[in-house]
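Exercise: predict the fold of this chain.
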Amino acid sequence: IGTEIVAKSSPDGYTILNTSSSHASLPVVSKSLGYDPVKDFQPITLIANSVGFIVAVRGDFPAKNLQEFLQEAKANPGKYNYGSGGVGNVMQFAAEFFNTSAGIKLQHIPFKGVGQAITELLAGRIDVVIGPGVVLAPHLKSGRIKAFAITAKKRWVEFPDLPTTEEAGLKGFTYIPFYGYWYPAGVPKEYVVRMRNEIAKVLEQPDAKKAFLDQGFDVVGSTPEEFARIVTAEIELNRKLAQTIDFSEK
């Protein structure tokens, strides 16, 4: 609803959209959006990238690392499942990209939010969650669930011994959700440039970087053009995935 409101707002520079990678996934799974994710918005800047999603499994899963997990999943296609925050949620996209890259088939179980999915993982009623590191971290530290890898290009300082998916043997796979700012389309260029520059100044401050990192994000502060390319490319990747995966409600 908020995104549609911004899309239809006056391009006077007073209304800004702050949203996540869902901006690139919702158009793929929803036929009833009241806006176009590209044509109706003017990118300002990519604020921050996630430190990555963590590939986490129930505590008694019969594998000690990612390679053993993949071997088990390949030997038993369709036996194991993963939970997400809902149909079309970025967690589902992460897991389906993981499925495709690894050549496995984890069955999808959608829940009403990431919290419910993690609760089911802790209880051992589902096998896998590929979700936000900052949300999974407390449960990993308690030892109630196991982590095999993080989906970023570099390790997370919070878990320096946790390998990236690339390091763990799944070559070429990363999944890095983002947050960014958009204006509605039609905002004068000088407004866009000024807003981006002011945001960049804030993101350069150590306190801002720490605040984002504490929430599981690395600050970026891209140009509008860089952000536009990133979003367009992600929408295209999501659309290609949706040609082979059913993202509809059952």
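Check your answer against the key: The longest helix spans residues 224-242.
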